[in-house]
User: Fold these one by one.
Assistant:
Number 1:
Amino acid sequence: MNHRKILLVEEEAEDRQLLIAHLTHNGFEVHAAANPTEALERFALIEPDLVLLNIAPPLADVLGVCTQIRSYSNVPIVILSGQSSSADIIQSLELGADDFIAKPFDVEVLVARIQANLRRSAIFRRDRPSAAQTPLKEEIIRFKGLEIDPARFQVLLNGTPVSLVTKEFQLLVHLARHPGSVFTLEELYAAVWGMQSYGNTRTVIVHLSNLRKKLEPHPTRPSYIHNIRGVGYKFDPK
């Protein structure tokens, strides 16, 4: 059996062993690291399919893991945190994390979220190309001033490449494939993350905010992604 490899970064030994046991029981190959330095060393050695990263002091070091991994890989990064309302989680998403899970959490939900992130990331991986990861040929999506190439993970804004992390790109593709349609945050989470949000829509808001900053010349007067107050978002190029 080809087990998907998870790099678990957890400082507390007891929590680390418990997570290893649960994830191994659910069929994952788990490689653990106790700190950010060890995590980056292990990442280079094992080339994991997903990183499960606990937010713990010193925060600068932990968030630095996201930044460094994102500089060369689109592997899914899922944040674990006991402070679901903190600005640290928002910052981690802005630095490239794909999802976050608040502690305490149900193990079944954790496993489902990991599996969903693995499924959604498969065709967008750029760090270890292989035949299995080569995306199917897809049509380029074109609008005035904007070109989206799903097969090449490429976005051009007025001819200039735009650097997007995986979830930003997936959100843009989904919205652009349904121009004019309004989606709630829950619907966007289901479409891009692959499961129900369980009330966790903040990660969608952060990724949409970052996406709009990168695409919109004037964010207060958007040209592409519009917020429909009290309802959701739609892609409606002007």
Number 2:
Amino acid sequence: MSKDSFDHHVSRRRLVQLAAAGTLAATTLGASGGSAAAQDASAGSTLARIRAAGKMRVAALVGEPPYFAKSALTGEWAGACVDMANDIAKLLEVEIEFVDSTYGNSVIQLQTDKVDIAMSLTPTPVRSLSINFSKSYFLHGYGLVAPDSLKVSTWAELNNPDIRVAVDLGSTQEMAARRFAPKANITAFATRDEVMLALQTGRVDCAVFAALLGMTAVKKNPAIGKFSMLTEPVIGLPACLAIPKEDNQDWKTFLDVWVEYNRGIGQVTEWLTNGMKLAGVEPDDIPSDVKL
């Protein structure tokens, strides 16, 4: 591994040091009186408040493997982002509270102090006006779910008014399809389940999916077709940790280093690969051009 590829080999010990530094002031004031410590925790960073409360509140996406999956029997959470959250909480020596959420709701929950972190959001210029983001832990590519009879592998081939394309409304899938295949006959459905139903019933010819979501959808319902990456160009948008917008940068600094460290040692890839197994997608099922 080169020196530049991994932030000069930041160690796990350094992660703990950064976390501790974020609450140094609160610890010092705590020795002189409980009221001073409480005042500092309230005025300080999200990181300081998490450490003071002993709890990290995580926006958990219900039914979104490989990131999140919740057992209907036990209520226990699993998935790649659950593993990430557990690792962060272990470093901070705090407990986790998972708060039921959706992609859209998680932004509002961060703005209204309902959660401290959302684990899998794509940064957009509009979102950046109201919340902040860590460095990217994964570059999410885009592809197509379609039957074998549809021979499309590039965006230019998809850019055809005779091809009926499904996307989920307001998603990055819709953004990519309308930007790179504007001439296609695109229909936006309210939910991803409606996209899958449209595929199964033949109301559309194909659907644009982000790679992990596409592979998961096909495994859940093989009747909708197969997933393959779209090329020329290869499109990828970052997946990041989302956090409240604040002047104090302790929380963001810690998470940026955490991302660099775990991406550099291949831990993020392992978490994502294990998360895919929750949807029945084994490592051999992942196309070679999908990079986790």
Number 3:
Amino acid sequence: MQEIAIYIYETADEVLLSLADSFVDMAQKAIDEKSEFTVALSGGSSPKKLYELLASSEFSSQVDWNKVYFFFGDERYVPADDLESNALMAKKALFEPLRIPAENIFTVDTTLPPAEAAAKYAEVIQTRFQSDKARFDLILLGLGDDAHTASLFPNTSVLAEEAATVKEVFLPEKNVYRITLTAPLINQAHQVAFLVYGESKAEAVHIVLEEENNFEKYPAQLIDPIDGEMQWFLDEAAAARLETEAEDDE
């Protein structure tokens, strides 16, 4: 396992500010080095607050957004105009306020059948990276109370997928499909950042970071970048059960 950097802050607002600063730093570095920054976004209420912060006057001028290319770590299998859509949330919170060019945004085509939508998105990613290995500069992830991340849910077949690709996932208890990057594709990233806050996440954070691996039961344990870095941004409530000492965030 690669070394993990864990940053713990008193409040959720401080967590969001720190991750926004980190996002800007990573974007600036990537753009300086190779004229672009590729990021896979996460869905949910916590990332939405991050995106709104990045689009605010405090951060919006710090990045050349025309050189940032956006993908999604997972997507709900719903129409593009459905309020559950991760892409629609990001559009309203981030893309529209920052006027991100349409050609910089790569979304899942949910008009296709689930398996076809996943295969097409894998093709889109591979074509965009134009190499044998698609390596995102940054993948943003959240953590569910059940220790799922992206749409890697407990006891689903995608957890055994060894290919760095995109797969459809059926969740029988919800009777819905999701489209997700597989763990091997996530693990190719240069940077992986978990954004987790709130006391309801404390048990899952402890299990993923400190308990013995049980990938079927705790899928987020699968995330272990091969040749990249992993950072966890936590508030004190989410970190309450950790024995691990946090890093100093300079």
Number 4:
Amino acid sequence: MDEDEDAEEKRRRMEAKIAAENFGAAIGFAAGAALAVKEKMDEHAAQEEQKKQQQEQTMGGLG
């Protein structure tokens, strides 16, 4: 009976460890995805700012 309880406890620890690892991987993936989205948004904002500056220079040259 004691061996059965030990085996059950070992199984529970292993399942908890696997669950924790999976959770950590999911958090890491989500953080990576969020960072990628932020970088794309920053890149887009920088491109828009560059377009705005080019338009201002062009308009300033015509006046």
